[in-house]
Amino acid sequence: MSNTQIISATELVFDGKTYRCAVGENGFTATPKEGKRQTPLGNFALRECWYRADRLGAPKTPLPVKIIRQDDGWCDAPEHPEYNRHVKLPFSASHETLWRDDHAYDIIVPIGFNDTGIIPGKGSAIFFHLMKPGYPPTLGCVAVALPDMLEILEKIDEKTRMVIGSVL
What we know:
Blueprint: E1 4-6, E2 11-14, E3 17-20, E4 28-29, E5 39-40, E6 42-45, E7 49-51, E8 65-67, E9 72-75, E10 86-88, E11 95-97, E12 107-110, E13 127-130, E14 142-144, H1 146-155, E15 161-164
Parallel strand pairs: 1-15, 4-5, 7-8, 13-14
Antiparallel strand pairs: 1-2, 2-3, 6-15, 7-12, 9-10, 9-11, 12-13
């Protein structure tokens, strides 16, 4: 399978095709830190796909698929033992809520950043998700339009890597 490569703040290339994307408000970084609104540079695994079953049908993808429920969250509190992991709500520490009013998280693919040998404060909840209208910058994630996400998901598998940065 082809790797997904983010080559600029507005372009994602996969399987020979260029897609419009959005990345972190403050661009890319080789030294990510929690809350800096930067997209980490590197070569990352894409291990699973989550989606809102109340809004979409299950995406066609070889990745393992999970349904986002109202009590799903992602810990972004560096001091917490569950930092950068899926959590169930209510959750007392700082976290992202995966069940959102907007459509950005109708489909998410956690990007395998800082998820093995987790380093507190290095960054969390970095997802490949849906863009908001107008392609505004993200908080550090990579976002694409729904039709593009569905097209990419059909062709990726657990061996596909997301390469962020053109010289990696």
